[in-house]
Each structure stands twice: as structure tokens, then as C-alpha cells.
């Protein structure tokens, strides 16, 4: 199948944004029918419900696309004690190599995904190997209660997550602290394009994309990752050539520098 041209790539976000608007409206009307006007004072709950609907419905499409990329092999490279950032609807759960993984912690601040993830863990027999924690990686007290402390993790996995967190710089500093020396940060992310016209299109779409899809198109993900601490192999980060994509990827397996 031929790749879309520049105009098609620029216009592509509209479809997902409109679909998400419809799902957020559906989430709002369901909440109002159930609880009256009370949900209007809790917009984050509506946002969480709408996001869960969007990512749940599109999950199979994302999985199929990721199957054509390096993502499956990246997830299989996770080993030891693993922390998965923002598992969402659990798209990566079936990809973990259980022979290499001791335990997996899924850190997900949106509680709406719990039912979906629990069902997937049961389906793949990972109930005793994977624990979902309803918090952000910045919630150190919650993580500490689970035994996740500085230098305790062998692997942190981040698949399309740094675009969606509120403060990626702080998230990456926490990632670096929690990793053992020699631990792996495995990531497949998207960020600001190096192509000028594409970057302009990203900036134009970004307000609506942020509001309804839930992530940022214009972040300098590479800087956020590299500024978090010292890595042994920053030269191995890959930036595939995607000049017209509004979701250009950056990917790699970074090793935390040993003292």
C-alpha cells in the first residue's frame, strides 16, 4: 500500500479528533443520565472516560500498526523487574516474554482502564506477574509502598506515553532515578517534526489534538529523555526518516550509566 502524501498526512488528524469529540460527548451524556449534573464539576472524570473509550475502540488498530514496527521486539526485550509507563488499554501485555520478566508494574493514572487490563491479564495468564498501580510515576509514596524505590527497576518501558504526560521532563527524571545502574529504558515515542512544513501543521492541530486525543504533537522528546540523567549509549537512539508524518518516531534502548 503506498504511503499517503503530505496533504493526506496533514488532514489525517481530523478523523481521530472528530471521533474522540463524539466519544467524549457520549461519556458526558452517560454520566449526566447516571448522576445528574454532578459530573459537570468533575471534568477530569469525563476526560478519563472519553479517553478510555477512544483508546479501547482503537486498540486493535494500534496493535496491528505496531506489529509492523519495532515495538514487539522492544517489548520482548524487557526483562527482570519491569515498570510499564501508561499501559492504557493494555496493548503491550501480550507481547511480554514471560521467560525474561520477573514482575511487571503498570503505572496508569486513568482508573477507567482497570477492567480492560484485568481481563487481558487473565486471558494471558499474567495475573500473578503484572500489577496495575493507579498513579503516575511522580507519585513516589504510592510506588514506594509497592517496593518501587530508587535503583530498583531493571527495565522501564514507554510506548507512546511521553507525549501524553503533563511534565515529561519530570517523568524522565523519575524514570532515570528508579532504574538500576545498567538498567534499560525502552521507548518508542513521537514528537516534534524536523520538517518545517510538518512542524507548522503539528502546531496548528496541536490544541484540538491535545484536548480530545490526549497527547502533545510538538514536544522535543529527545531532549526530555537525554536531559534526565547519564546514559551509556545515547548515540544509539534512532530517528526514522518520516518527514511528512505528524507523528514522527524516536526509538531506542538506553542503558543507565553505571557509577
From TrEMBL:
CDD domains: AdoMet_MTases (cd02440). It comes from the Eukaryota. SUPFAM superfamilies: S-adenosyl-L-methionine-dependent methyltransferases. GO terms for molecular function: S-adenosylmethionine-dependent methyltransferase activity. Keywords: Signal. InterPro entries: Methyltransf_11 (IPR013216), SAM-dependent_MTases_sf (IPR029063), Thiol_S-MT (IPR052356). Residues 1-31 form the signal peptide. Residues 83-187 form the Methyltransferase type domain. Pfam families: Methyltransf_11. This is Methyltransferase type 11 domain-containing protein. It comes from Penicillium coprophilum.
Amino acid at each position: 500500500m503506498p504511503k499517503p502524501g503530505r496533504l493526506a498526512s496533514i488532514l489525517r488528524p481530523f478523523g481521530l479528533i472528530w471521533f474522540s469529540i463524539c466519544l467524549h460527548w457520549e461519556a458526558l451524556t452517560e454520566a449526566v443520565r447516571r448522576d445528574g449534573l454532578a459530573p459537570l464539576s468533575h471534568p477530569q472524570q469525563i476526560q478519563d472516560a472519553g479517553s478510555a473509550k477512544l483508546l479501547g475502540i482503537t486498540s486493535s488498530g494500534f496493535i496491528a500498526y505496531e506489529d509492523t514496527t519495532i515495538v514487539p521486539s522492544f517489548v520482548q526485550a524487557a526483562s527482570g523487574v519491569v515498570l510499564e509507563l501508561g499501559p492504557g488499554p493494555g496493548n503491550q501485555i501480550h507481547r511480554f516474554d514471560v521467560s525474561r520478566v520477573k514482575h511487571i508494574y503498570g503505572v496508569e493514572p486513568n482508573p477507567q482502564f482497570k477492567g480492560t487490563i484485568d481481563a487481558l491479564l487473565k486471558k494471558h495468564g499474567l495475573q500473578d506477574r503484572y500489577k496495575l498501580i493507579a498513579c503516575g510515576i511522580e507519585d513516589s509514596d504510592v510506588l514506594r509502598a509497592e517496593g518501587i524505590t530508587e535503583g530498583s527497576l531493571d527495565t522501564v518501558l514507554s510506548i507512546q506515553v511521553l507525549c501524553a504526560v503533563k511534565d515529561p521532563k519530570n517523568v524522565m527524571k523519575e524514570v532515570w532515578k528508579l532504574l538500576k545502574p545498567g538498567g534499560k529504558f525502552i521507548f518508542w515515542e513521537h514528537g516534534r517534526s524536523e520538517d518545517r512544513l510538518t512542524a507548522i501543521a503539528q502546531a496548528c492541530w496541536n490544541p484540538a489534538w491535545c484536548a480530545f486525543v490526549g497527547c502533545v504533537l510538538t514536544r522535543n522528546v529527545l531532549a526530555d529523555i537525554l536531559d534526565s540523567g547519564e546514559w551509556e549509549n545515547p548515540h544509539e537512539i534512532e530517528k526514522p526518516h518520516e518527514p511528512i508524518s505528524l507523528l514522527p518516531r524516536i526509538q531506542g534502548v538506553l542503558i543507565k550509566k553505571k557509577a
